[in-house]
Amino acid sequence: MMTEQYVTTSVTPLESLNSLSPYEIDKLQDASQGGLYRLFRQCSLAVLNSGSELDSTKLVLDKYAKFDIKISQKHRSVQLELMNAPATAFVNGELITGIREHLFSVLRDLLYVGTELDICCPGANESEATTNMVFHILRHADAIRPHIKPDLVVCWGGHSINRVEYEYTKTVGYEMGLRGLNICTGCGPGAMKGPMKGATISHAKQRIKDGRYVGISEPGIIAAESPNPIVNELIIMPDIEKRLEAFVRLGHGIVVFPGGAGTAEEILYILGLLLHEKNHNLPFPLVLTGPAGSEAYFETVDNFIRATLGDSAAERYQIIIDDPHQVAEVMREGLERVTDYRKATSESFHYNWQLFIPEAFQQPFEPTHENMSQLNLVKDQSDFDLAANLRKALSGIVAGNVKEPGIRAIEESGPFEICGEEKIMQPMDQLLASFVEQRRMKINYQEYQPCYRLKPELETTEA
Questions:
Q1: How far is residue 196's CA from residue 191's CA, in Å, rounded to a whole number?
Q2: What integer is the mean pLDDT of 146-150?
Q3: I need a labelling partner for 188 at 20 to 30 A (CA). Which of 106, 150, 198, 263 fits?
Q4: pTM over 0.85
Q5: 455/243: higher pLDDT
Q6: For 189-227, b where at least 16 C-beta lie within 10 A, e where not — what string?
């Protein structure tokens, strides 16, 4: 039986971040509540564990409990000391170049948010400050590219998809790459990797040497969805809400592949924004697509959206089954409309400032048992407010499935209880049950135990 191999070595940056202040080093090695050590160790391990079959942050951290990372200065240059790192990240004792780049992207983003971005935009309201913070993080990561026509397509979908669905995501990415489009995903495996992999081939055919494969993650999810090796721009946002905002501010259109609770969360997020009256005239192409055989998945998603948010929400997306060429054409035409609109309104090509995002979509949601049970899941509210609350419910389920704090909370106190009107709980139950039946909740689907329990309003009032 082969035993797991570990490597202990030191690593220096390739280009940037070749010097840090003593304050920054202390902050990164501070294990207290206000320090960055825990996040730095967790995100670094995720990067080094690229290609892992584990989709649980807790399992990854437990498996590599002896992993550690320290920062030192050598001749006033930064040096990372890696102890008991996964051997798969190395070739002949040398750290793989792409993983090395990702490691220092983690360092760059955690330091920027933790030490330099303390106060953003004095005088701005909370919503404006959040949007500017997202912009500053993206600009600091060199993700803002002015004077380039809209060409960045965000691809959402599950990390736990079957082989046929994965191959389909590659073909869609290939077709979009042929049209000069670039790809942005959540950086992980499955539907996050496939479009990038397909686009690399078509970019090579078109002799596009500066193709962008942008991966946007956040500390709570990255260990469960380690960056895939194709990502050449890794960005770590502070939390899931800013990660979602980064997708829709930076990207110009969205393609959604089959997925689980996390993908449903993303769909609810963008639909909630597009349903707001301030965004009604904003062009934002949104396509839901999958191979032949995925019809039942999209029918369930479509039924859920119509039952909860109404037919007006369904009018904001197009469902295309088993036609990568059409997906790419619809997206290309949609991006032309985005370009025309931004020219007409003098909006920037590189950051969607005009998109209005209500605070309900920006405020970080902590999925505790109390918060999950108190979500306002009733029809008597605006459609975008309901979308925001449904998004939080799905975010809590994602946390219970793969994030360390959520998994530990479920172990200690049992499943989250989600309460709401029966006319909302019933379609949600059908949606989640289909995810479980189709093995979309986790890679280790045979061991999956639901981390949630749905309680219609009638049951809660009787209690």
A1: 9
A2: 91
A3: 150
A4: yes
A5: 243
A6: bbbbbbbbbbbbebbeeeebeebbbbbbbbbbbbbbbbb
Residue 234 belongs to a domain? yes
Residues constituting the chain: 463
Q: Is residue 326 domain-shared with residue 188, that is, in the same domain?
A: yes
- The rounded radius of gyration (Å) of the Cα atoms in the chain is 22
Any alpha helices (H) in 54-96, and if so which ranges?
57-63
Q: Which 8-state DSSP code applies to residue 190?
A: G
Find the CATH number of the domain harbouring 87: 3.30.1850.10
286 vs 248: CA distance, rounded Å: 11
Q: Are residues 165 and 105 in the same domain?
A: no
The whole-number pLDDT of residue 461 equals: 41
Domain boundary among 99, 118, 137: 118
pLDDT at 404: 81
Q: How many CB atoms lie within 10 A of CB 252?
A: 26
Task: State how many domains the chain has.
Answer: 2
Structure tokens, 170: 């590659």
Residue 4, pLDDT above cutoff 80: no
C-beta atoms surrounding 322 within 10 Å: 15
Residue type, 73: Q
Q: Which residue segment(s) compose the domain that 400 sits in?
A: 145-463
Listed residue (40, 176, 158, 53) closest to 109, CA to CA: 40
Contact 426, 456 (CB under 8 A): yes
C-alpha–C-alpha distance, residues 266 and 186, integer Å: 11
The helix/strand/coil state of 36 is coil
In angstroms, the CA 60 to CA 85 distance is 12
Boundary (domain end) residue, out of 118, 153, 169: 118
Poorest-confidence range of 11-20, 109-118, 119-128? 11-20
319 and 357 housed in the same domain: yes
**Mean pLDDT score of the chain:** 89
Interval 256-295: pLDDT, tens: 999 999 999 999 999 999 999 999 999 999 999 999 999 9
**Is residue 158 a part of any domain in this protein?**
yes
- At 348, the amino acid letter reads S
- If you average pLDDT over residues 343-349, what whole number do you get? 94
Q: Which helix H or strand E contains 134, and what residues bound it?
A: helix 126-140
Q: Six-digit token pair at 124?
A: 């701005």
Q: Number of C-alpha atoms within 13 angstroms, CB side, residue 285?
A: 27
Instruction: Let me know whether 458 and 377 are in one domain.
Output: yes
211 and 342 co-located in one domain:
yes
pLDDT tens sequence across 360-403: 999 999 999 999 999 999 999 999 999 999 999 999 999 988 88
Same domain, 255 and 371: yes
